[in-house]
Amino acid sequence: MKKLSVLLVFVMLVSVFCAAAAQEKSYLERAYDGEFKGTQVIFDGPFVDNDQVFFEESIKPFEEATGIDIVYVGNKDFESTIQMRVEGGNAPDIADFPQPGLLGNLAKKGYMIDVRNVISEDWLKENYSEAWLDLAMMEGPDGEPMMAGIWARNNGKSQVYYRPDVWAEAGYEVPTTWDEMVALSKQMVEDGETPWCIGIESGSATGWPATDWLEDIMLRTVSPEQYDAWTRGELKFDSPEVRRAIDIMSEIWFTDGFVYGGREAIATTNFGESVKPLFYDVDGCMMHRMGNFITAYFPEGLVPEKDYDVFYLPPIDEEFGKPYLGGGDIYGVFNEKPEVLAAFEFFSHGESLKFWLGQGGALSPHNDADASWYKDPTEAKIAEFIQNANTFRFDGSDLMPSSVGAGTFWKGMTDLVTGADVDTVVTEIDKGW
Fold this sequence. Notes:
Layout: H1 2-24, H2 27-32, E1 40-45, H3 49-66, E2 69-74, H4 78-87, E3 94-97, H5 100-108, H6 121-127, H7 130-136, E4 137-139, E5 145-147, E6 150-156, E7 159-162, H8 164-170, H9 178-190, H10 208-221, H11 224-232, H12 240-253, H13 263-266, E8 288-289, E9 309-312, E10 323-333, H14 338-346, H15 354-357, H16 377-387, E11 391-394, H17 396-399, H18 402-417, H19 422-430
Parallel strand pairs: 1-2, 1-3, 10-11
Antiparallel strand pairs: 3-10, 4-5, 6-10, 7-8, 7-9
Helix pairs in contact: 10-12, 18-19
């Protein structure tokens, strides 16, 4: 009996020791140890078509190494259905939110788990810049801030494409300030060149490239808090801040000789076609500011960093540092099952996007993502720009109500291009609120 008691105590001590050892490991480490083999994680999101293929290929190494099956459910109507499903008690384990506002609504209602409770804060601070961590902070159900998700695939818009070989031959240098960029534009005109290619035609969405330009300028001339207030309608378009941004934009867009085809061509030139004169050997343009997706519209056979390269769209007011405009996907987690938290932790690593980066069209916010993973080295450069940014903000028109962002804002900027006066434009845009 005594031996049995000793044995029982020994078994209990071993069990406690093993449990303690397991607790010292992260959920991801335990998953790689095979602890959650045979389990399943439901992941919902908006990825369909090629994006779904790229996502599923990216997670295969994790599934094979851990035995966890991540079942992805792609849905084009994700944004319109996820809230109903969550509130109806049918939430997935993890979901990808292409816009942070929707995640913020669910966090405020108490449906989301605070990331800091399930992933080491030390790791989060190591693998994300402060700008990304700040952008993940949202209001929780008790009114206190919580980290509502982790950032994954993203895109950047605050860059300018140019041809380094052509610039080198002309003796042009990459500008590091807005004033230098404007001065360079004037020099190009004097040299018989056209500085900019700009086109905003996009069918029913005509005008969105102009809103992107204005948003980039706003980030460079107002504080992040003021930018946020602007996207919420608290800082009106009819304000000194927005009017100043329009004036700065107009200096480039409407100065004679600055834009390919002249001001009258901007509203009728398709955004995808507008980049093509950048590659004309004669009578083309020298610069094109656009999101990193624009490379899909480039002529075939171009060699990155030789036939084209990018530079950071320069700052304007020094006090606001080097902000970046773009978009991204933020993943939120709905329950605390170990296999779910292991998968969720996996998504905080650049490895979770490695395959996708190799296909092009995606950037990683993770510090551990290797530049060699990118198909296009200019995308690796843009990712580095974003990592070094002191502020990152989403496309403002996407954050505004559709009546403004995809309504009066798009139309107002188009009207500005086609000759409407600023007073009329800002007044009409504000009516959308």
